[in-house]
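Researcher: Please translate sequence to structure tokens.
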Amino acid sequence: MSRIGIKPIQVPQGVKVTVGPDLVTVEGPKGKLTQSYLPEVEIKVDGSAVKVTRKSDTKQARAYHGLYRNLVNNMVLGVSAGFTRSLMINGVGYKAEVQGKILILSLGYSTDFGVAIPEGISVVVEANGQKVVVSGRDRHAVGKFASEVRGLRLPEPYKGKGIRYEDEKIRKKVGKTGVK
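Model: Translation complete:
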């Protein structure tokens, strides 16, 4: 039995979960999210909890059981509290700024990067342009946008220059002069 899938999802006050034949809709203070699901699982709302069960015991149904439970849980958390991902920019002259719906990044190249901020995501630049906080209600969209920004200048292992997640640890290497 799936340890994740059998846990009921607690729905906080102000959040409404609607289950259709193949679509789950979650509405809350931060907006509305929808997710389609396959017929191998069944989603039911019992009072202030949502339960996900599987219809058969096939390998595919067992996989979908935990998957859809976590997707619905992320939707409930997203419309009630939201998700954030912080990026740290490290390097001489490296900085970020937001101009309208575009994130401008100076990353040591001859030109600056302009990244369009998707709908439903907000970006705040803190600490003199060295910290970028990406937030939104959809966990997948927040993580994808943060990953795309990080991919513009990956952190390098010698000086640690580049863009990294705030909770990411960079293992630094010893340069040529440190080896004897």
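Researcher: Any highlights?
Model: The first strand starts at residue 9 and ends at 10.
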